[in-house]
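Render this sequence as a predicted structure.
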Amino acid sequence: MNDQNSCKVIIPVFYPGKIVVNCINSIPKNFEIFILDNGLDDYNLENEIKKLNREITIYKVGDVGVAQSFNFALSKITSEFFFITQPDVTIKKNCIENLIKSAKVYKDAAILSPVIYEEGLYSEFDFYNLKITKEKKISKNQKKKEKNREIKEPVNDFNVDAINSTALLVKTAIIKEVGGWDSKFYTYLEDIDISLRVRQLGYKIIKIVNSKADHLGFSSHKIENKESIDRSRNWHFSWSSVYFASKHYDKWFFYKILIKKMLKYLLKIFVNIILFRKKKLLSNYLRLNACVSFLKNKKSYYRPKKIK
């Protein structure tokens, strides 16, 4: 089977602007692309994409979030693999092809990911630590990220605990086996959650050094939507963090984490009121509001306002 037939490319978007064109242009023309549009950006997005003369299918999935968008793709795709990336990512030459070759070598890998750079420099967010116990439960003693740690660019393929959805190749059958993404996550930590769950089934996540991608970071949306997206980011990261903890830790440890978070946000709210720091006040209010929302109904309801 040719690479283009064995693998489809998935790009979820939410009012991405023209930056998605750079992403598409970095993908070899022999790969079919599926755009999963969460917004109502009909005119601009479709017209920009039509100019490219590429084999691209746009699905208007509605404002359902990242995890549910991925599950939509999973329900449509019959290829052996699919490659997920984001509008603010450009992939380097042979990125997808080398991932597919490696996937056939690493039989026990569920997810393979290129090495991620940010504006040409190796990214400190290339992967994440997420230790699990012998019983396949998430460890309560996660190693904290060291400040000012040396970031070493890898020279060989290596196993990782977890990665985000910046760019990754997944084996379709294994992702279906694990049940797909948890659609309760609107955005943030759905990727860490599925990383954990594939490892709990005994599969691996591997970074492939001869596969590379460049990520701009926080640039996947139109610049005029920055304020609304920043508010959404604060709310959803907080909500997803709480939901992740409730899902993977025992009840008492979860409440310990939740109470600690809420007290921290509450303290920061008071401090920022005193110091008249409106932006930080709003950020911490949104984070606290997300925690309260989870306790009340466990639904991730918040949506960005004034999107253009």
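Summary. The first helix runs from residue 3 to 6. DSSP finds ten helices and ten strands in the chain.
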